[in-house]
What we know:
By secondary structure, the chain is an alpha/beta fold. The chain is built from 13 helices and 14 strands.
Amino acid sequence: MYKLLKSQREFLEIPHDYTLDVAVYQGGYGSGKTFSGSLLGILLALKFPGIRGLVGAQTYTLVRDTTLQTYFEHLDNFGFTEGVDYTWSATMQTLIFSNHSEILFRHFDEPNKLKSLNLGFVEIEEMSDIPYDTFKMLLSRMRQKIKPQWKGFKYRIFGHTNPEMQRGWVYKTFVENPPPNYRLISAPTTQNIYLPEGYCEELKKLYDEEYYNIFVLAKTGNYSSGLVVKDFTNENIKDITYQPEMDLYISCDFNVDPMCWVLAHKTEDKVFYFDEIAMENTTTAKACEEICRRYPNHKGQIIINGDASGDNRSCTSEYTNYVIIKKKFLQYGYDVDIRIKAFNPPIKNRIMAFNSKVRSADGEICLFVDKKCEKLLYNIYNLSYQEGTSKIDLPTYQQIKQSKELKFLSHPFDAASYLVDFYWPIGM
């Protein structure tokens, strides 16, 4: 029924005689990662009656919306009928097969709750997102009693993930010094012959070169600097003149101390950050007043972008931040247009969108910053990842006490990246 790709077949088959197989399918977008993992889970459930498997990710939303749906798609393709060949228990979050095999769907946010399980296999969605300690705990759960009729059975832990942006625990475990029963299967998007024609070329236009190498060519990143913003050079710094006749874009991060907003003009494909608001111990209304003080005679439209959580009421006001902005600008004679997403995208989406504008894989520069934006430039040159992870390294309270400038890390970048992600989002 399925004609598998070479990397998918390599993932499914075990090339050694050890009793435990540990494999990770590391692929670019559209390389068939979740497809392969869920297919293997179903095949194990069918081949070994009574096996108990666990499918999980760091968040249950990812398990429910991505992995579980792919399981159902496979079951439909196999011609299986719910209630006859299998049952889905929503209360137990478990697939139960007619041969008594079970597959549990869980999140790994509280791994201690999984310590009582005895399992035959584990599937991990977005493997690089879970902590190494969780992976080690799951290894210890590979102890379901082997049934006599399970010929050729091996315990299996298998995961699928995009390549890590840095050399984290997956790289160290599966590449640097892997045990003989550990396998990493690399699956570039370019090898998937079933994708629409021109799919990879379109991604090359969207992504900067480093992201293209990681999320399409499936190469493990090795950013020596560890910076969040890549390939930003003096070509991205430009004297930008405020144009009162043009639309003014204001993108907001609603932290009280500091509150950081960026001001920009944009064209169809380029963004120009010409000023910023970076105020300590302030309010949304005062930030609006500061903008009106600096630019009192704006003629074009004023468009507000930014943090989606700013559309929620706070405990200190009956109004949302965006309602406060609209009311305050109306006092100065401006009717602003609020344009925000229903919810904030994952930070990695915003980072990719921002970097693709800094410099695309084709070398095109579409993001420019004026030297007046000191805090934004400070973020571009200093915001970094925690070593060995894809998490942003944010300063602690004690570090901020020792260096006040550190309090401005992340907030200006958040404001700037909300704007880019709204108008030029990266498809995942």
